[in-house]
Q: What sequence folds into this?
């Protein structure tokens, strides 16, 4: 490579990071690390109308959580700063004026109303270049009158513009289809186009890796680079991420939704709040649009950084396989230590409203469910009952196949008796005692254990029964069995 590798992630602070943007950040990071270059975070906050309070913090926090550290940018500084565009306004103004002086840009005084009537009356989008043809006197008069203006670029009217995309090849457009875009707005702020080009140049960005949705702006930016007499960075547009069913773009989604019965998350903080681990999410995102090779699906960020280059990026849109993320997260959760798993359980349960969680109990539960959960929701489903004051039990769920209410009642009474007298309340003795009890009652183990499982957990699918009892302890176990029995003796409400 001719230039040292310097890439940037340039989000606009318009809310939480979209998962598609997180993938863009990740690919830039991998690229920088692979080539020993620099990964720069730049905040493109020139559109004051779209600014969302708190989003800068969200971006910083989100990237840190993912483990994508930046070498230059907010909070870490760098020689090319400031890295927040609103602090660089002077620079953009200077270069916009330079273009005006060079006759490559002009002041446009058209009012909002005029522009509106234009777009209403024209078939084609765009500005009719009215002010491009004003005379020097016209300008002088309008300036003297203090008319507010924007600065527009003088797009060539003929010919074509070609940009070479490393992943896609040449992108060529007719200049006649490009509009005289606004560079500086009336509020004194630059547009995205101007600020982006000026910054990429002065920050000495070597490669632009960004989402496919930005392709239309590439020829426009090329025109700007040419007008400034600057070399355009090497550019590559990353493939769009499609919805899990392969139809439509995920980038159009602004918040989680349900598709084919499955919840699909789209904002980085939604993944975090649902209990996805950063390492699982990173692994998952790396697989969308890029392939590690060797048919490997599980790898660390360091391993992919070693291999990452643009040659294995597939230009075609990639599906977002939400179901795979769950599986991957499960894989990573299984690698967690007991301590980490306990803290994972605690966060999940506290997030669901459980309080005063006993640490020792969590330590017993963690290994029991570690191989069975993929996210916080699973933890709550599989472990929440341990901490409930009362578990939800109804005669319908309690009474097992080929059993009557009387049989169920008898089974519960007999279990209570057996357990009250059991010398040691631990897994093995519980199992032995209850297997013998099933036999004595003439029940299949499946029937008795089914009753007990519902009585103790309020659900039909739960962690192993005897371990569960041992964790709950004798007192709670007996209390729950008795409560279940009372449900049976309550008169049934006729519906
Ligand atoms: N600010 C743009 C964004 O929000 C950056 C696009 C680019 O990378 O050029 O994604």
A:
């Amino acid at each position: 490579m001719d230039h040292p590798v310097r890439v940037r992630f340039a989000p606009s602070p318009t809310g939480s990071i979209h998962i598609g943007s997180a993938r863009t950040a990740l690919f830039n990071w991998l690229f920088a690390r692979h080539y020993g270059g620099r990964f720069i975070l730049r905040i493109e906050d020139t559109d004051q109308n779209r600014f969302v309070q708190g989003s800068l913090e969200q971006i910083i926090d989100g990237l840190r959580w993912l483990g994508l550290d930046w070498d230059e940018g907010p909070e870490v500084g760098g020689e090319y700063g400031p890295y927040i565009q609103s602090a660089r306004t002077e620079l953009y103004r200077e270069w916009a004026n330079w273009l005006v002086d060079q006759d490559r840009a002009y002041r446009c005084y058209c009012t909002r109303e005029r522009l509106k009537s234009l777009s209403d009356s024209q078939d084609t989008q765009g500005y009719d270049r009215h002010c491009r043809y004003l005379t020097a006197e016209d300008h002088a008069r309008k300036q003297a009158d203090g008319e507010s203006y924007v600065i527009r670029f003088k797009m060539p009217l003929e010919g074509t513009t070609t940009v070479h995309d490393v992943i896609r090849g040449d992108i060529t457009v007719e200049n006649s289809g490009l509009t005289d875009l606004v560079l500086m707005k009336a509020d004194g702020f630059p547009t995205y186009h101007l600020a982006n080009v000026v910054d990429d140049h002065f920050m000495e960005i070597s490669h632009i890796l960004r989402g496919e949705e930005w392709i239309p702006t590439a020829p426009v930016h090329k025109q700007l680079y040419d007008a400034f007499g600057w070399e355009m960075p090497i550019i590559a547009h990353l493939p769009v991420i499609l919805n899990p069913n392969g139809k439509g773009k995920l980038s159009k989604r602004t918040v989680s939704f349900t598709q084919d019965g499955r919840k699909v998350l789209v904002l980085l903080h939604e993944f975090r709040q649902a209990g996805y681990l950063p390492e699982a999410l990173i692994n998952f995102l790396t697989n969308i649009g890029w392939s590690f090779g060797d048919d490997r699906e599980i790898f660390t960020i360091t391993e992919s950084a070693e291999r990452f280059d643009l040659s294995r990026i597939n230009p075609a849109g990639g599906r977002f396989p939400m179901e795979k993320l769950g599986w991957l997260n499960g894989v990573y959760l299984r690698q967690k230590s007991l301590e980490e798993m306990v803290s994972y359980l605690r966060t999940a349960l506290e997030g669901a409203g459980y309080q005063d969680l006993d640490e020792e109990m969590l330590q017993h539960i963690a290994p029991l469910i570690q191989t069975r959960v993929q996210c916080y929701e699973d933890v709550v489903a599989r472990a929440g009952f341990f901490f409930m004051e009362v578990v939800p039990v109804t005669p319908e769920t309690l009474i097992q196949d080929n059993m009557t209410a009387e049989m169920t009642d008898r089974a519960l009474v007999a279990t209570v008796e057996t357990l009250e007298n059991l010398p040691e309340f631990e897994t093995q003795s519980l199992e032995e005692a209850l297997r013998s009890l099933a036999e004595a009652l003439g029940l299949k183990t499946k029937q008795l254990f089914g009753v007990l499982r519902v009585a103790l957990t309020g659900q039909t699918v739960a962690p192993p029964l005897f371990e569960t009892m041992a964790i709950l302890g004798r007192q709670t176990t007996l209390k729950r069995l008795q409560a279940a029995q009372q449900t049976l003796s309550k008169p049934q409400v006729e519906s």
Notes: The chain has 19 helices and 13 strands. The first helix runs from residue 19 to 34.
